[in-house]
Amino acid sequence: MNKLNLDPEQVGRARSLAARIAGCVTDFIGTKTTVAVERTVLRLFGLDGVDEDGIPLPNIVVDRVKEHSRLAEGVTKPFVNAMLQTGRTVQETGEAVAKGDLRLFDLPWLPEQNIREKGAELARAALERIRRNRERRNELIGKYGERPQPFLYVIVATGNIYEDVVQARAAARQGADIIAVIRSTGQSLLDYVPYGPTTEGFGGTFATQANFQIMRQALDDIGEELGRYIRLCNYCSGLCMPEIAAMGALERLDVMLNDALYGILFRDINMQRTLVDQNFSRMINAYAGVIINTGEDNYLTTADAVQAAHTVLASQLINEQLALRSGLKEEQMGLGHAFEMNPELEDGFLLELAQAQLAREVFPKAPLKYMPPTKHMTGNIFRGHVQDALFNMVGIMTGQGIQLLGMMSEAIHTPLIHERHLAIEAARYIFRNARHLHDEIEFKPDGIIARRARQVLADATGLLREIESIGLFESLEQGKFADVKRTVAGGKGLTGVVDRSERYYNPVEQLLREELGLGRGASV
User: Which of 284, 323, 365, 491 would bridge 330 by S-S if both were Cys, CB 3.0 to 4.6 A apart?
Assistant: First the structure.
């Protein structure tokens, strides 16, 4: 596909620049671990629950190791050594540490080979459970068949998981393909994962493993009733990015928001912490068969969509290359962009079409995540419905993969059930009536759309060249993306970053690397 007359060599140059940028990041993060990575290992081993004060047991164990300045070697060795020395299970060991009945570094050490054998056994059991979930997803999709893209993606955000279930069932009956459970405001800044079913979220519902399990079962039940597979989406971003990825893999989530830069730019999470965490979280998502969604659409809520369009493409290319280095396939990359041109702009629809078609041609295998207008929604529900209709038209004309449906009441309130029904109805009407339009149309070789796309590609290539020369960290400090500036040593979570020692051991990462064909890396 090359309807825009893009120069293949220029696309290749842009991708090569992004690859070199990602390679430098990979070299850096390969020498570090984080408290979230180590907590994830324990969760995958099977450690769960909280102490009497509500503190998650994985947090307590990792904190104990960190207090002894031994986290550089990873949490696995002291934890598994304690299991073997005491004969306790994973859960019993974690509970004993939390109660103070077991001091990890007061125990004698078994031969390292014994510890590694047990660590590998626990890692294999975790990945086996994830593999079964992946196979179950494929089995259900094979049973019901797949609906054509773009998938209709809608959100529920009541704050109460049981109310979310009611909303999700209604949305599925109305025609939704993907249900995204919005997280409670501010959860990305919590350096722990809340425990159990929750009913008190604000602006969304807390992402917990119990909530994942409740919603997964509800969607499986309604999917059986409707005769189709309903995908579940949540957010593995923030300070607990890899932990939530692991919980999603264990409970068979299908789609996860998992961007390399979003937390840095929009939540002021330290860039070192984010880049280390995203790598491990994406390895888990890759193995679980999860589609990740990236957040470039957010750039256009703070920067002008006309002037900053090239930053979206540049970031998509960097996200793609970082994802490849984590084992994700192109078919699992829901790279994000958005319909955010000012509606008062003459030929704005053509510019939107150019951007969407450009993304489609540069990333032909990716199930692109296309976001609806938000920045220029005014509360006029009639104009808003028209804006959403134009957005849906661009989506079907350019073959997007995941269409997050716009709501006419954007900028007024959280959508009501009938508003979501109208959004789904309108999208299905447009997609049905224009199903093969993208196969029928071509663009004028030197027209507005083609020229705009080529200019955005050229500008993105220039930006990538600049980033490659100074490095991604310095580029973030200079505010190259979304007009937001961050510092290498600033933001939240830096104290949770630890340099790996030569004795670092992470059997989950080691096994994931083997399964995903990533080679050995610094952890092994």
Answer: 365
Strand ranges, E, within 157-275: 178-181, 231-235, 255-257
Of 149, 86, 25, 140, the closest CA to residue 399 belongs to 149
269, β-bridge pairs: 492
Q: Is residue 286 part of a domain?
A: yes
30: number of Cβ within 10 Å = 15
CATH number, domain of 248, equals: 3.20.20.440
57-72 core/surface letters (b: 16 or more CB in 10 A; e: else): bbbbbbebbbeeebbb
Between the CA atoms of 60, 61, 65 and 66, what dihedral angle is there, to the nearest 10 degrees?
Answer: -30
Query: Distance of CA 445 to CAs 362, 451, 454, Å?
Result: 17, 8, 11
Asked if residue 130 is part of any domain, the answer here is no
- List C-alpha distances in Å: 153 to 231, 355, 423: 9, 20, 11
Nearest to 99 by CA among 128, 73, 68, 64: 64
CA separation for the pair 106, 421 (Å, rounded): 61
Count how many domains the chain has: 1
pLDDT score at 520? 62
Q: Which of 100, 88, 21 minimizes the C-alpha distance to 64?
A: 100
Whether omega before 150 lies within 30 degrees of 0, making that bond cis, reads yes
User: What span, in angstroms and rounded, lies between the C-alpha atoms of 404 and 83?
Assistant: 46
Residue 143 lies inside a defined structural domain of this protein: no
Is residue 524's pLDDT more than 90?
no
Distance CA 32, CA 499 (A): 4
How many Å apart are CA 230 and CA 461, to the nearest integer? Answer: 38
Under 8 Å between Cβ of 102 and 93: yes
In this structure, is residue 38 part of a structural domain? no
CA angle 319, 320, 323 (to 5 degrees): 85
CA–CA separation, 159 and 477 (whole Å): 35
Exposure on the CB side of residue 503, measured as CA atoms within 13 A: 11
* Residue 174 near residue 156 (C-beta atoms within 8 A): no
CB 181 within 8 A of CB 156: yes
DSSP assignment letter at 122: H
- Please report which confidence band the pLDDT of residue 523 belongs to, taking 50, 70 and 90 as the band edges: very low
For 474-519, the pLDDT digits (tens) are 999 999 998 899 999 999 999 999 999 999 999 999 999 999 999 7
Dist. CA 414–CA 45, nearest whole Å: 38
Residues with a known catalytic role? 262, 297, 369
- Please name the residues in contact with 23: beta carbons below 8 A apart, sequence gap of 6 or more: 321, 325
Token readout for 440 is 């029928």
Q: Where are the alpha helices (DSSP H) in 161-229?
A: 161-174, 209-226
Instruction: Give residue 387's domain range.
Output: 149-452
For 151-208, how does the pLDDT look when each residue is reduced to its tens digit (9 = 90+)? 999 999 999 999 999 999 999 999 999 999 999 999 999 999 999 999 999 999 999 9
